[in-house]
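Obj: model holo form, ligand = calcium ion.
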Amino acid sequence: MPTAKNPNRSPVFRLITIAAAGLCSFVIGLWGLDIGFGGQTDAMTPQTLGAIVASLCALAAAGSSLSYFAGVDESADYVFSETQIDKLTGLNARTAMVGKIAEAAVRVTRTGEPVYLIDIDIDRFKQINDAIGYSHGDELIRGFAKRLRATLPKDVEIGRIGAGEFAVLYPDSGSMGDIDVVVRMLIERLSQNYRLSTHVQSISLSVGVVAMPKDSNDPILLLRRSNLALQHARSRGVGGWAVYEARMGQVAEHRQWVESELGAAFDRGDFELYYQPQMNMIEGRVVGYEALIRWRHPERGMISPMEFIPVAEETGIIEQIGRWVLRKACADAHHLPEDCFVAVNISPVQFTDRDFVATVCAILDETGLPASRLELEITETAMMRDRERAARILRDLSDLGISVAVDDFGTGYSNLSYLLDFSFQKLKIDRSFVNRLEKDQGSGAVVSTIVGLSRALGVRTIAEGVETESQATLLKAAGCEVVQGYLYGKPAPLKIEAPDLQRSYAVH
Ligand code: C2E
Ligand code: CA
Ligand code: CA
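Output (holo structure tokens):
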């Protein structure tokens, strides 16, 4: 058991209690003796007196040890409640939950009846906590735990194993039905809004499930695997759940490899930029190019940015990579037609860096590219991280004459009121809407709405991921004039055709 200091009983305090208990027992004994013998103790023989003093010493020792053990018990209780019970929710704390999983594993071995470990995590809890303040964050956690407890039978063990993360041990024979029914029901109930003292908070969840004994009997491994399943569910989008599969471990291993290789890749110069044209359908010409990073590993070949950008963001190396992309794209832009701009993706980590605007200015100076030929693609999610700061940065960029496109528009926040706080020049309609244009009418309505919204805001639109003529036609009908996608050109390296460098650009 981990040691926890008991602030109610310091070592000095405990020593004083023990000494006082011993002394008190001795004095009380002496006093009782004096009363008992009516002050006649002088007449006693040395043997009798010796025996009486010895008994009194024994009494004092008993008093001290009683006090000692009471102290130990109290400390043990204290340590137990500190480490085994989660103060905020009253559920099992992480250490206790590890113990419960171990006990369940022993039972599973004996009875052969499977038990599931369900890992439930509130998406973006850290950001929610930062946004609403820690006391409301605590209120949310308490409300969540209460609902979770109320949803499950009394004998089901529940623990809080991380800030916004909970674990449940659910037996295969549980009274609520099959595991998929239980998980769906948990997600449905726990994702309902929470009424906090100041506002109503909405949340989404990701859930991972492992089975004992199939996936392991080791509590730590089980927790790791349920979390791998959870991460997998999260990577597929909000509100999802996944059951652990062995390949998820390989994905995690690959991720670790990526992390360990990124620094060397940067030093070796493995990265390249590809460019994809953006076509104005009305003018019938290319108006800009989006720079997309590529990693050509000497042994493993091409690695997708979807694989390494999130890792680079987590480790922080994205700052270096992002600066390199910006500098290279601005330098390359001199080889694009003069009436074309270059669009550069900016990671949320770069965008929230305090020197971001200064870095962009320095790079424009260094490369001699006019601000009007640079466009920055920034996602909604990046803007929402710190709204006030984002608004300031966007204003500064706009004052400098740099255009900003809201990337992946429509996939992040349903609340559009934030748009009014931000200055930007373009909405980039996400590929997922374009993708569904031909199949479902709802997507067409979404695109028309976005175009209408952009007109009301006085900004332009561009649609990404256009692969077919009919998608292009539908987009045009919805009022979207600029498009980008495989139909017009795949991302490709910049081809500089000597001697006429000015006219050279990406070919497909
Ligand atoms: P994104 O910004 O949404 O970029 C568009 C992605 O869609 C690119 O994937 C592009 O190759 C792909 N794409 C373009 N047209 C089509 C199409 O018609 N059909 C389909 N299915 N896909 C199309 P890519 O290059 O793999 O990049 C993926 C993501 O990685 C980008 O998504 C962006 O978020 C990130 N990324 C790429 N380069 C950079 C960079 O330099 N910096 C940062 N921070 N992120 C980058
Ligand atoms: Ca983009
Ligand atoms: Ca996108």
